[in-house]
Design brief:
alpha+beta; Arc Repressor Mutant, subunit A; two-stranded antiparallel ribbon; two-stranded antiparallel sheet; 4 strands; 13% strand
Amino acid sequence: MKLKVKISIADDNNRGFFGIGIVWLLEEIEKTGSINKAAKNLHMSYSKAHRILKRAEEKFGKILLIKKKGGIERGGAQLTDFAKEFIKSYKEFQKSIKDFANKKFESEILKFFS
């Protein structure tokens, strides 16, 4: 038996706007250099990816991506330094919360299932 922990950041209306899914999307954008390619690789529509990213940028009040328009050299996107730093901090935070939750689960809850 395992504990499943999902962590997301929510606004004042308790509507989540940042979680591991956006981290995966941003990491895929960093890898591919493209919102469209990243969305396809994650089986997500471009419009959904764009909407998620736009909402996160609005909530942060900061830009997560530097976007280049299409043309001869084609478009593309790369993460801002802020996005890279936030992803690193978020992943460390998420790991520490999950580690803590798993230890508490093992010591205080799992004994009821044996």
